[in-house]
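Lecture 7 notes: from sequence to structure.

We start with a single chain of 343 residues. Read the sequence below before looking at the structure.
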Amino acid sequence: MTYKFNEIKLDKGMYGETGKSFTQVLEKLDPSEDYKGTPYEGLDAYQRQLKRFDIRVRGAGSDAVEKFFRTTESAVLFPEYVARSVRQGMEEENVLPSITATVTKIDGMDYRSIYSVPTKDEKSLRHVEEGEVIPQTEVKVRENLVKLHKRGRMLVASYEAVRFQKLDLFSVMLRQIGSQIMRMHLEDAIDVIVNGDGNSNAAASFAVGTAPVSGTSGTLTYTQLLEFWSQFDPYTLNTLLVSPDAMLQILKCSEFQNPLTGLNFQGTGEPGNPLGAKLIRSSAVERGTVIGIDRGYALEMISASDVSVEYDRLIDRQLERAAITSISGFAKLYTEASKILKI
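Now the structure, written as tokens:
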């Protein structure tokens, strides 16, 4: 049986189609739905091209980097391999889904988010008598544009240095680049949560030892966490993003030392939380800081570019200065859905 993927002519121009990734271009030429019931079912169009050129990218039997460059057509697949490996590293370290309410993808660099600031009366669920005016919730456009940031790393390696390296090992290096890029995006997200997105919407800040939070500055107990939790009404504190030193103090609280909590931590690596909130430790959070978030309402992520690589350089084996980038920004949705506790 003749398969269509063997007949596709690959060229670098496939990376340049506006609004489409390389894989999407391939899928248009070679739809995956045509392979139902065949040995290639479950593979996407890019993975079928790897099969076509017999390139194994993972496992003990993975090929060397130079396998991509046996032909001019197979070389076209290399930038997508780099992008996928970087993307995998980003997903492995990605905590953004735990702190963002939604992701908006755009084509361009200008974006203006929407917002709503309900009054106390608008928050109340009061009964509306017949003939009365129904309470309104006004949705507005932000005054200032969301700032998008290009974050990336430069891949610096001569082709001669990596040509004989196994792809499985090279993928580890690329996943680390992805991890570093994702950390930059997390730092951007934390900055917007704490300081706002330029529209006068910085998060409210509380301090241990200053009303309404009791205790002594520098010390965190379960009582202070409860007092912090109580400031979120009508929102729900369901995510705690904390610095490493704050995480240590939280886990030392007796309420967090329940035997079942310890058993869960040993089995899954996820610390339990009597407050019911997800605990996330990050060194991107300032020392002595706990950030409380209602992840369903606090933050919007705007993505202008997924993983972008300089495909011309990579196809032509010019790895010495090949940039790998991703463009994203963040906007505050409901200001009161995120707050800060300083220990």
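The longest strand covers residues 299-309. Keep this in mind for problem set 3.
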